[in-house]
Amino acid sequence: MANISPLAGHKLPAADLADIPALLSAYYDRKPDPAIATQRVAFGTSGHRGSPLHTSFNENHILAICEAIARYRKAEGIDGPLFLGIDSHAVSAPAQRSALEVLAAHGISVHIDQADGYTPTPVISHAILTYNKGRTTGLADGIVVTPSHNPPIDGGFKYNPSHGGPADTAITKAIQDMANGFLADGLKDVKRLSYEEAIKQPCITKYDFVTPYVADLESVIDMAAIRDAKVRIGIDPLGGAAVDYWQRIVDHYGLNATIVSNEVDPQFGFMTADWDGQIRMDCSSPYAMARLINLGSEFNVAFANDTDADRHGIVAQPDGLLNPNHYLAVAISYLYQNRPQWSKDLGIGKTLVSSSLIDRVAAELGRKLVEVPVGLKWFVPGLMDGSLGFGGEESAGATFLRRDGTVWTTDKDGLILSLLAAEITAKTGKNPSQHYHEISARLGTPYYQRIDAAATPDQKAKLSKLSPEQYPGDTLAGEAITAKLTKAPGNGAAIGGLKVTTQDGWFAARPSGTEDVYKIYAESFKGPEHLKEIQEEAQAVISKVLSA
User: Fold this and answer.
1) Domains of the chain as residue ranges with CATH
2) What positions does the domain Alpha-D-phosphohexomutase C-terminal occupy (predicted)?
3) Least confident window among 316-320, 521-525, 540-544
4) Would you call 162 a catalytic residue per the annotation?
C-alpha cells in the first residue's frame, strides 16, 4: 500500500521547492545519450514527458521530436497551420522556443498565443477542429507543451494531428522512432534556425486563441442558465494555463464567480503537496486540492483545473472534493437526459479503470457502453463520427459533444466539465454531490480507490505484459471471477495490464504512462472491507510479479 507523506496537504518549505535556474540550465546543458533507455524519446499515454534534471526532457529531445513531426506532416500531406500552445511549467517556454527553431526552418505555418501566454490543451483541440471544419485539404494540427499535472521539474510535449485529439500509437511510434534516430546521429539532419531568426519568419503568426474558444462555450454549455441562476462559483486555476481564460469567461457571460487565485509561479510554491510529498497539480487529489476544499463551503459549487486544463476537480457539499468517478457518473446521467438534440443512439465512452457505477448509469439510461484502455485517444473516432456523446476517464479527464450533437473537442476539456457542474447546479437546484448521492441510492454505492506505488522502468515493463494466467484461481475476494481482461471489451485494444472482475467488484493493475509508478485500481459495491480484500489480493499478485 502507498504510504502517505506527512507533507501531504501542506505547503512545502522554500528549501524543498524546485530550483528553477538549475532546471533551465539542465534543459540546455544536458545532452541525452540515446543508448540509455531512460534518456530516449518515449511517447507514453499522452506525449513525451520527463525532466531536464533526469536528462529525459532536454533541448535535444525537442529538436529531434519537432524534426520528426515536420517530416511526418510532409509525408501525410498536412500543410495547414500548426497550433502551438504551452502551459506554465518552467521548461514549457524554453521547449516552445526550441520547437519554433525547427518548425520555422521547415517553413511550417505556426500559430502561437498573441500575448505570449498559456494555452490549455482543449483550446488547441478546439482550434484545430474549428479550423478544419468543412475542409478536406490544408488541414491544421497542433502541439501542446505540457506534462499535465506532473511536478514542477517536469516537461511534456504532445502532438495532436488533424482530428484534434491525442495522436494514436501508430503516429507516436513513428515520431518517437524518427526522433531517436536523429538523437543517435547527433541531430545532424535536424533543420534549425536561431530563435531570433525563427520568430521573425512570416510563417510564425501571433494568434488569438482566447476569444473564439470563450465565445463558443455557449454551444456546449448552457451559460445563460448559469448566469440567470446566479450560481455562486469558486474557481482555482492552480497556476495553470487556464489562468487567463477564467476571468474572460466570467466577464463574457456575467457569471457570479470568484477566482480564488491568479498566482502563477514556476515553483508552484502555493500548492499543497500531494500524497507522496511532491507538488503535483492533480485536481483529483484531496491533498493537492486542500486550498479549494477549505473554501468550498463559500460557494454553491467550486472547481479547479490541472496545469494544462484538461482535467477537472469538482468541490461541492456535502462531499467536498468529489471522487472523479462519482462526478463522471453524474455528468453522464445529466447530459443524456438534458441534451434533447443528441441522438438516441449515442454511446457512452469510459476507460476500463473507471467506476462500474458508469456501467449501471448506462444501463439505466438504456445506452450502449464503450469500454476502452486508458487514454482519451481511444474516444477520438467515436467523438468525430458522432457515435459517442461522452468520453471520460477516472483521472478526471473527459469531453462531450456540443448541445447540437456535433463534436466540441477530441481531447480532454477540464473547462467544460467544470462549467457543466455549474449548469447542473443552475438547472436542477442540486449540486453534483447531491446528484451523486441520489444515483448511488438507486444503483449502489461504489467504494473505489487507486493506489500508486513507485516502480522502476523494468518493473513497469513487467506489469504492462501481465497475462490472465498470472492471476491464479477463479475467485476474487470471495466472489466468482466473471472476466480476466488484457484487452478492452469496447475495441479489443491491449490495456497494458490486467483487469479482473466479479459481480460486485474488480481490480486493474497497470504501469503509469507518465511517471515511474504503477497503479492498482479497485472497486467494490459491497463495502470498504470488501474493497480492502480486493486490494490485498491484487497487491499480493503484483508483488509476486515484480519480484520475479
Assistant:
1) 10-207 (3.40.120.10), 213-443 (3.40.120.10), 447-547 (3.30.310.50)
2) 493-538
3) 540-544
4) no
